[in-house]
Design brief:
Elements lengths: L3 E6 L4 E6 L53 H17 L6 H8 L3 H8 L2 H25 L4 H12 L3 H20 L3 H25 L8 H20 L4 H22 L9
Antiparallel strand pairs: 1-2
Helix pairs in contact: 1-2, 1-4, 1-6, 2-3, 4-5, 4-7, 5-7, 5-9, 6-7, 6-8, 7-8, 8-9
Length: 271
């Protein structure tokens, strides 16, 4: 495909972009998004989207987040579409053009916002974890005791068989991807620290209330994550996973409470 570099100037807009023969669907002459063609990435120095979309002033090397650190409505729609496909079929089995089709946009729009599939995977999982973290904080805020806070947290994480299965299958796929693909190991570390931070908030509050017998908050958060994820991973292997979900939820709640209420006696230094 022949690419002609064009410069479009007016009083409020300057675009320096590789325009793909005017066949980029879903975009007007000025709404020039970037698309990958073979190797390399198209360049967008400044591009304004119209037609109900917010103004964007960034190049493709920047994050997919806007100046306020949040995703636009259109970006969230793409991320949700990607997440559904990743959880149904696996990260490596879903090409960008199928994500675009599911979101009802062109591939070039997806690449404009997220630069590459790897970037989209990272943003998608970060968005999911942020959503879960926010739900946990809202649920915990309603609790009157540290024990109730733990039950509220576990209840939020164990939302139901289908949502949990969707999330943890995608999460396992990401772990596998992180172990095999260069550059994704850092992403996995970011996820671990994000999840641990949510647990650490709850643990810190329980210590302040004099309820949790925790010596090392960071260590305790890691142990809580191990309990939650370990039981979820075992649950995924159950043939009757829907029927067994309640048992795993109750077991997880009991295990986390037992650990936090007695962590001082079973810390790693004591073992």
């Amino acid at each position: 495909m022949t690419r002609t570099q064009r410069q479009i100037k007016n009083s409020s807009l300057r675009v320096n972009v590789y325009y793909l023969n005017s066949r980029v669907k879903g975009l007007s002459r000025i709404e020039l998004a970037a698309a990958e063609s073979g190797r390399g990435q198209a360049e967008v120095r400044l591009c304004r989207y119209t037609g109900g979309m917010s103004t964007a002033s960034s190049d493709l090397g920047s994050d997919a987040f806007d100046r306020n650190g949040s995703l636009s409505e259109r970006q969230v729609h793409i991320v949700r579409s990607a997440y559904r496909l990743f959880s149904d079929r696996g990260v490596e089995r879903v090409p960008i053009h199928e994500i675009a089709a599911a979101a009802g946009v062109s591939k070039s729009v997806v690449l404009y916002y997220f630069r590459s599939k790897e970037k989209l995977v990272g943003v998608t999982m970060s968005w999911v974890l942020d959503e879960i973290g926010d739900r946990i904080r809202r649920a915990v805020a309603q609790a009157s005791t540290p024990e109730e806070a733990v039950r509220a947290m576990i209840g939020t994480i164990f939302r139901g068989p289908q949502p949990s299965r969707r999330f943890y299958l995608t999460y396992l796929d990401l772990i596998d991807h992180a172990a095999r693909v260069s550059g994704f190991g850092r992403l996995g570390a970011t996820f671990r620290s994000t999840v641990n931070a949510v647990y650490a908030e709850l643990i810190r509050s329980g210590i302040a209330a004099g309820t949790f017998q925790v010596v090392d908050i960071e260590e305790a958060a890691t142990v809580v994550r191990a309990i939650v994820e370990g039981l979820h991973f075992q649950w995924l292997q159950e043939d009757a996973w829907e029927q067994r979900y309640g048992w795993y939820k109750e077991t997880c709640t009991a295990a986390v409470l037992a650990y936090l209420l007695n962590a001082g006696a079973i810390s790693s230094e004591a073992i």
